[in-house]
Amino acid sequence: MSIRDVIIVGAGPSGLAAAIAAKHHGLDYQVLEQGVLVNSIFRFPPQMVFFTTPELLEIGGLPFVSPFEKPTRAEALKYYRRVVDTYDLQITGDEQVLAIVREEAEEAGRAGQAGRAGQAGREESVFAVETQSGRGVRRVRHARHVVMAIGYYDHPVMLGIPGEDLSHVRHYYAEPHVHYRQRVVIVGGGNSAAESALEMFRAGAHVTVVHRAPTFKSTIKYWIRPDIDNRIKEGSIAARFEHCVKEIRPTSVVLIPAGGAGEAGRAREAGSEEELPADAVYLLTGYRADAELMCRAGVLLNERQAPVHDLETFETNVPGLFVAGGAIAGVDTGTIFIENGRFHGTKIIEEIARRVRS
Fold it and tell me: pTM (2 decimals)?
């Protein structure tokens, strides 16, 4: 059984940066990705434009050249494909990590006999990383270190309401054309909700936005804010602020005043409920990193549901297990972007390389 120096979970910008650094330091590494290369960016709407400049998306020192001030999704996908080709990175796609288990030192020492030359029989712990491919094939890989660069876009925040699993309910927005002349309810108050509402309205959909707060979030892009506010003001897009969804039905959604889902809500009269017709429902209520996977690996979370980790090395409370990029955000996903998360992997690998050489 071979033991790698490091397994990197996630082939987003942070994971790719870690892989580039691992190759630079001569480490034996492997990147595991449950979807496709930069899966989160791939799941963005095809017409999406980044709210940043090209150079702030660069990794590994490879220039991101674009004729536009703000690059598009298509350009980003092309760029990260070029990154992988340029550095010949070892990535296994369509392989989901099911569990990360830190094996006991005695067992790891026996396994180490088949490990790297010069380290055979060394008494140290290793991680067993269990995966399953899209075709159902399971396997276990071993490594002395693991970097969880899992991001958060693959895990939408679930509302836990009846009907959330119906076929016309979506957590990701893609194209507006399919909703021409349809009644669409969008739940959320961020950029995704505002932009998708505008696009679907202009594609001929009848759009209603539902948000539990009195207005959209303050983080709305500056060129989007006046557009969405004016469309609501003129009645082109309907809005139900200070409301939340109680239930989703096959052809409608049931709304209640915000804060009315608990005991206070049960005390409200039935007349406070509102039923809206809906041919499609978009729950654009945010995303979170896979905290369950981290917790099963022994990682502790703080009060903001972020993994406890060293701010310099990004190592968690589990020795040898590191977090990078969006994985460190917890509920505060607005604090981690490609622009700052792309540097995490390099710092982590520098620490791992130091330990491997010592």
Answer: 0.88
